[in-house]
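Progress narrative, work stream C.
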Amino acid sequence: MKRRRNEEKNEGKKWENERYIYTGEADLCKKSGEDIFGVLITSAEFLLEKLFNYDYCMECMSEDSQLFTSKNFPSLEEDILYNLLKRDDLQIEEIVAWDFLINWGIEQISGLGSDRTEWSEDDYEALKGTISQFIPLIRFMDISLADFYDKVHPYKAAIPLHI
């Protein structure tokens, strides 16, 4: 039964692709944030600017908190991440946004592992350079004191002093 559902799902995607090819339209209304995220990535890779309505995609993705748990999240482009984090209607807690910003930043730096005990001062500076433009978008006042101490404070060397 599961295989049949996957076949039906793939058939639906095939139909959507054919529909776009023939009509120039794609209906993303019932797609998940991760699917829309995939459309954004593919569109950027192939320079298909007219494939989607950017604002609509951003709105749909901000409503799907599972996007931030996607295995593709680290490949999110800077401008898309920036526009997601600046949205007031982003459906995640600020500490979740912080966690994923840190993980995204770590993934952007070649050779930087997730074990902070092995990081050098240069590693923190590299992370700081990678995430500094996003720091003002995190609403630190909405993060509990316990979460701030446990999850933000360890990265204080990567947070610009001028926030």
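Work stream C, second folded protein:
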Amino acid sequence: MAFVEDATKLHPQHSRFRKGGYFAYTPWSFVTITIFNAVLAILVMIPALPLMFLIGLTIKLKDRGPVFYKGTRLGISKRPFAMYKFRTLPVGAQKTIGTDLFKPGTFCLSRFSKFLRDSRLDELPQLINILRGDMDFIGPRPVRPEVYDEVADTIRNYDLRFSVRPGLIGYAQLFTPHSAPKRLRALIDNKFITRKRKLSWDMLIISYTAWIIGLTALRKGTGHLTDLTRSQVFRFYSQTRAFDRVRAKGASVIVSTKDGTVLEDNAFLVDLNESHFKILSTIDLNGEDYRFVLRRTIRRGRRDRPKRSICHGKVYKTLPWKGNFKHVHIIAYEPVTPLNHYMVDQYFLKKSIV
């Protein structure tokens, strides 16, 4: 059985991808950044090898399929290269995904695969790409050729990303979730690309990212332990869901009918995931379709900024509750637009790194 799922054959090299005279580095910065990335990749890879071995062994034992995934991506000056990852999707999944982003629920992922994707440990093999000079630690994330074909002519200055090497850590990846519109992600990438000339900028972003990921891992680990304790010891939140729950602090929900008639303007949002959310309500929702407005306030500096997302949903399950709220509803929801989907991921599910 092969150890690498080779998806590069799906993308024959096309002359369009080899064009472009883009180069944002100065000669000195290119040399120093290349040396810095190579040295750092070696320093990271040495202690990471045991972890990578355990991940690979688990993947192999889990479904007997390839350990690694190799796919075509576009690098500096649009040069194609083979990018490596730990395989988390079923073999041949890219044929199904096409130009779309991977959506939760598209494939039945194991908890281990989901953990690899959420923790971004599936990206560890890209240290090989850094050593080969295909990628840097910091830069816009590499693009699939079919995605480039789709968006290159519709997003202004999209080709600016090819003036630098793609990165293991993407600028837009730091500040936005995967569901963010490509136009927004391209805008964020382009804002930072001009600073790529300085090695100090890479070092600052790497240090900051390591700090944030460490805090996030600690917070998520504590949250998982708390959920486990509450569900197994105290028997709270005993219902099971396909995805991990996230509690959006201070969030509430406006419940209305599809025609806009408000039924309740301050239902309490307990938690949510990619497909369902749980609310405490004073009314009994027994209809089919409702309109939900998820609301919460985000503190930015000294100012409070209200955030909201509009969703359509159906009552999946109703549970009994004692207290001021008479009903507990599990809602199967779907954001009404891609922008609302982004708002859910960014401000309620908190999927971005920062």
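Residues 4-217 form one domain. No further action is required on this item.
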